[in-house]
Amino acid sequence: MTNPRSPTGKVVLITGASSGIGEATALHLAAKGHQVVLGARRTDRIAAIVQEIQWLGGDVLHRKLDVTDLGSVKAFAAAAHAHYGRIDVLVNNAGVMPLSPIEDLRVDEWNRMIDVNLRGVLYGIAAVLPIMREQGAGHVINVASTSAHRVDPTAAVYCATKYAVQALSEGLRQESKHLRVTVVSPGLTRTELFNGVSDPQIRAGVRAMLDQASIPPSAIAEAISFAISQPANVDVNELIVRPTAQG
Fold this sequence. Notes:
about 250 residues; seven-stranded parallel sheet; alpha/beta; about 15% strand
């Protein structure tokens, strides 16, 4: 059974919605009157966010999601489509960033970044593209990074995945005349992304950078909201949002 949408609200799917940019985006868009569908592995954390959105009068759906599993991503999209009758926006936000020098040869961490940061984005697109094509409209927002524009020591593999997301997004944009495609590239943002850094020295360096110059996840949520709010014939292709003090 489908639920009626508000005249201005859109059905927005958000991956990696249990914290950071995903959580901030869910709260911000729900407050704007959009119907948000939250997906992440940590269902207990999502449940708390859902409760907060519902308490504020928002319309929200949630489902456990593993973006490295195509079946999980397709089920996530199918549940949203079955409930609301359409999918207007996908925010491909899930990501990991276990920084390390290449010479450390942390191949498992490399594979994890490729699986989540790139393959997860591809799976998201694969799950919603047929629905959006049938609708004749849709919007894919891929959260990349300023690391899609520069390469730093210890971040080579992470940067490679984000460069790939940028290239993939541009290809999708060129191939899709009725689909809007946006890349949002955050700079230093206060999220749990850096918790995956296992090297104590690198982690301490990142923490120092965050203390010196960083922005809250809400800043990225507002950028995503801006892209969504544009008229149907306006496609905001890329937004780079970084702290003023970031070099």
